[in-house]
Amino acid sequence: MAKEFNCKECNAKCCRYVATEIDAPEDEKDYENILWYLIHKNVSVFIEGKEWYIQFSTPCNKLDKDWKCTIYEKRPKICKELSINSCEEYGHGKPHNFLFETEQDFIEYLRKKGIKIRDLD
């Protein structure tokens, strides 16, 4: 039997960022745009499956000091619809294939793929 999960018992990993899908990069302009994202504080980019996302690391204003939701019963629909499979605390496997937290992470990824891009340093 699968373990039941309850957001009230979690440490709110999914409530500490906002992520939205972006187009997969296809050319030098797209790679430069991702580098631009990554030189900003608390911004990362990740690949989940074949989808690309930009992530802004910023906690929900409705979390208390212990990372508990203060509006759990009235939380937004997107929170209520979270699946156990996508839950970072109780789900299965890594939440992403690749995570780029710095521009250097992304440059190294591109170099391994044989894609040349200028270094920002």
Describe the structure.
By secondary structure, the chain is an alpha+beta fold. It has one domain (7-112). It is built from three helices and four strands. The protein has a four-stranded antiparallel sheet. A hairpin with a 2-residue loop joins β2 (43-48) and β3. It is elongated, with a radius of gyration of 17 Å. The model has no long low-confidence stretch (mean pLDDT 86).
**Biggest sheet strand line-up:** 1-3-2-4
What's the helix-strand series?
EHEEHEH
The structure class reads alpha+beta
Major β-sheet profile: 4 strands, antiparallel
List the helices and strands and how they pair.
Blueprint: E1 18-22, H1 28-38, E2 43-48, E3 51-56, H2 77-80, E4 98-100, H3 103-112
Antiparallel strand pairs: 1-3, 2-3, 2-4
